[in-house]
Amino acid sequence: QVQLVESGGGLVQAGGSLRLSCAASGRFSSINDMGWYRQTPGKQRELVAGTSGGGSTNYADSVKGRFTISRDNAKNTVYLQMNSVKPEDTAVYYCNAGGKYLSGFTVRDFRSWGLGTQVTVSS
Hints:
The chain is an all-beta fold. It is built from no helices and eleven strands. Strands 2, 4, 5, 6, 9, 10 and 11 form a seven-stranded mixed β-sheet that branches.
């Protein structure tokens, strides 16, 4: 099993900054992609930013130029630096990761979600 634990959420004023962290632990042999999603009540969960095992990144248009995703492979941790935040960034932010784990003699894929961390931006 792979566990993802997010931290760093909270209340911030519009225009401010916040840094989210997500650490992976458990039984896995490799982590490929890691990413951040967000969800508000009544809406579908949406991708905010993602990073592949090769280091490429992608962002939602709404956060380009303001948010930066990065990862520390040695710590199995992914970060989301949020700058110039806006009230519309208010949401629960979820970490997601995919990779491989060994089950007996078989290599299998995993996909895990964290429990989420609340980010609230006040105007």
